[in-house]
């Protein structure tokens, strides 16, 4: 009878050991799954970082090819404040999504209205100008007429919105 009793005692122990082993296996599988997800997330963040850098580089290159004047503290008086006629000043940043959307519109305006001067200010490089014109948000468009601000626009605008702003100036 002691043989039967020992047999019954060892079964629960074996079951407990089996459950413990399965539980450890599940935890190990969960850990491997978490590590795999972490690796994928890290790879995704790295790819997004590279994409952002590429986009910023393309944005800067497109701006270099535009027929605009890059404003600095040294040339703002000559190019904007003492200028007769209409001048559009675009305050932008390489990291700004709406600024990137606005870029082709500004480029189109510079081609369409050759007589109108379009200037640009990179807010990260020209902080003095940002303070001088009290710009708090990018993109910001300021329209000057004979050296005075006549219209200001904050945020992404369509070409028709900008053309509407230019009407009756």
Care to describe what's here?
The protein has 169 residues and is α/β, with parallel strands linked by helices. It folds into two domains: 1-61; 66-166, Glutaredoxin, CATH 3.40.30.10. The chain is built from five helices and five strands. A five-stranded mixed beta sheet has the order 1-3-2-4-5. The mean pLDDT is 82.
Structure classification: alpha/beta
Number of domains: 2
**What is the 3D shape?**
rod-shaped
* Radius of gyration, taken over Cα atoms and rounded to an integer in Å: 32 Å
In DSSP terms, counting alpha (H) and pi (I) runs of 4 or more, how many helices?
5
CATH H-level superfamily of the largest domain:
Glutaredoxin
Main sheet overview: 5 strands, mixed
Helix content: 55-70%
Strand order of the largest sheet: 1-3-2-4-5
Task: Determine the oligomeric state from the structure.
Answer: single chain
- CATH architect. name of the largest domain: 3-Layer(aba) Sandwich
Number of strands: 5
**Strand portion, in percent?**
15-25%
Order of helices and strands: HEHEHEHEEH
Distance between the termini: 109 Å
Mean pLDDT: 82
